[in-house]
Amino acid sequence: MSRGRGTLKQVASEQDFKLKQCQSIAQVVSSNQIEIRDAKRDNSSTLFKRKKRRSNRAYNLLVMGCFLGLPIRRRRRRTRRRYMPEIPLDLLVEILIRLPGKNLARFKCISKQWLCLISSQYFCERLYTTRQRKQQPPHLYMCLVDDYEQSALLSMSSTSQDNTCFVVDQDLSIPGMGGYFLNVSHGLICYTVRRQACIYNPSAGQCLTLPMIKHDIRAEQGQTMYIRRHYIGYDPVDNKHKLLCTVVMYCDRLFNLKSEHWVFVLEAGGSWKKVVSHENDRPHTPFARGQYIRIGSVVHYLAWHDMYTCAIVSFDFRSEELTTITAPDNVREMMSVPALKMKADLIEYGGKVAIFQHTNLQIEGRVVLWVLENAEKKEWSKMSLVLQPCQRHLVQDTELILKGTTQDGKAILAPFEMHSGFYILCYDLQNNDLRKVEIKGIPHHWFDKECYYDLRLMSESESVIYLET
C-alpha cells in the first residue's frame, strides 16, 4: 500500500509540475499577445516587428525549456552573431568520401556548388580510390526474367568472412526492368530491355533508358537471326562512362553474317555513334551467353566469325577502336562443330586475357586455360587443370556456365538452370581448389517456373554519378 501511495504522489506531483509549466506558457503567450496588440496601436511598424520577433523567440525558448528540462528565462541576452569559418575544400572532400552513396546523391540537391563538387572528376577519382583501398565486401547482383517478361533485380551480401554464403538483402526491382545480361562498371549496372540499353545506379535508385539504335544493316533473304548486345566501360582520361553495342544479323548456322558496332557516351545530350570499321575486320557474333571482362579501359569478349572460327574481340573505350585476335585452333579440341558444342568463355588471369575452356568439366573434371601472353605477337600458353577426386561430385550432377571472376581471380561457375537450393562454385585456379557458395533468400516462385538469370559480383557497389542524357 505504501508503494502504491508513493507512486500516486509521484504521479500527482508530476502532473502539478506539468500544469505549472503549462500555466507559465499561457502567461507568457498572453503577455506576448498583449505586447503585440500594444505594438499594433503604435504607428511605428519597426517597433511592432521587433516586439513580434521577441515574443516568438520567448515562446520558442519557453517551449524548449519545458520539454527539454531547461530553466525558463523570459529574456535572452543579446549576443553578437558569430560567423563559422569556411571549411577548407580538402577537408570537405575527406568528409564527403566517407559517406554512403545515397547521402551523396541527396547532397547534390543542396546547391550548384555541391552538385559540381560531387560530380567532378577529382571527387569521383578520390571516392573510387578510397573505397578500393578499404576493400569493401563484394555485392552479388542477380537479375531474373521469365517468359512473361516479369523480372527482378536482387542484391546479395556475404554473411561470412570467407564468403561461403550470400543472402538477399535488397530487392532493387523497378517497373519496366527486364533483361538478364548484366554488365557492371564503377557501381553502374547495364542490361538490355527489348533491344534497348538501360543503365541502373543501385546506390541512387536511378534508372535511365538509352535511345534505340538506328543501325545500317539491311536484312536480306534468310537473315532471321538478330542479336543486340551491350557492354559498359569507363574512359579514365576523360572520366566518362561509355557503352558499346554490337548489332548482328545472320542466317541459320551463321551464314551471311553481318555486324556493326556503336558507341554511346553517357552524358547530357549523348547519342549513338557508329564505330569506324577497317577493311580487314571480319563480321562476328558474340557467344550466345558469353561473358566479358574489362581490363582498364578495354572490354574483351569471345565471338564467332563462323561455326568453326573463334576470336577475341577487344574494344578500347578510350580510343574507340575495335580489334580482333583469332583463338588457337587447338581450342576446338577435335570438335565437329565448335560453335554448337564448345563451352568456353573469357576470364582475367594474372592481369591477362584468358580463355576458360570447360567443355569436359562435367564428364572428366578437366579445365583447359589458354592465356594470351602477347597480343601483338599472338602468343598463347596452355594450362590444364584436373579437379581433385573429392570435389568431382560438385560438377557431375549439373551443367555449369561461367559467370565472371572474383576480385582475387577465382572463376565463378553457376548452374545452367535455376533450381531450389541454388548455389555457385568458386574455382581457385592457382591452387586448383573448388569451393561451394550457397545463395539464400531468392523468392520461391522463381524456382517453380522457367526463367533466365544472370549474376555479377561487384565490389565498387556505390556510384555518385547522376545519370543524365
Describe the structure concisely for a colleague.
The chain has 9 helices and 25 strands.
Structure description:
26% of the residues are buried. The chain has three domains: 2-68; 89-128; 135-458, Neuraminidase. The chain is built from nine helices and 25 strands. The strands form five sheets. Strands 21-22-23-24-3-2-1-25 form an eight-stranded mixed sheet, with no helix packed on it. Strands 12, 13, 14, 15 and 16 form a five-stranded antiparallel sheet that branches. Strands 4-5-6-7 form a four-stranded antiparallel sheet, with no helix packed on it. The N and C termini lie far apart (75 Å). The longest helix has 40 residues, at 2-41. The protein is 24% helix and 35% strand. With 469 residues, it is an alpha+beta fold. It comes from Eruca vesicaria subsp. sativa (Garden rocket). Keywords: Membrane, Transmembrane, Transmembrane helix.
How would you sum up the global shape?
Answer: globular
CATH topology heading of the largest domain: Neuraminidase
Q: Which blocks of ≥5 consecutive residues have pLDDT under 50?
A: 1-12, 17-40, 59-72
CATH architecture of the largest domain: 6 Propeller
Distance linking N and C termini: 75 Å
- Secondary structure tally: strands: 25
Mean model confidence by pLDDT: 79
Strands of the biggest beta sheet: in what spatial order? Answer: 21-22-23-24-3-2-1-25
Structural class: alpha+beta
User: Strand content of the residues, in percent?
Assistant: 25-35%
Specify the biggest β-sheet. 8 strands, mixed
Rg for CA atoms: 32 Å
Percent in helix: 10-25%
Number of domains: 3
CATH class of the largest domain: Mainly Beta
Q: What count of helical segments does DSSP give?
A: 9
